[in-house]
Amino acid sequence: GDLKGSLEAQFRLNPLRLSMDRASFPVATKDMANMMGLDVGEPYRPTVSSSGEVLDFMKKRLKEAGLLE
Questions:
Q1: pLDDT computed for residue 14 by the predictor
Q2: Considering the entire predicted model, what is its pTM?
Q3: Which of 3, 11, 14, 44 has the highest local Cβ count within 10 Å?
Q4: Integer Cα distance of 39 and 53 in angstroms
Q5: Residue 11 is assigned to a structural domain of this protein
């Protein structure tokens, strides 16, 4: 395998992965997928989508990772 390339990808994506800790699972996963244009819908109650600073922070990390314009 490509050890160098995989390490570069891991270090590039780690901040994105860690930003998901600000919301619960699977809320953060759904929020990010929706921001990237995948229509995965809203989480089932009693959980709700992220908002405010949490969503802004995840969006910032998606942009930094090159996954969102």
A1: 95
A2: 0.82
A3: 14
A4: 22
A5: yes
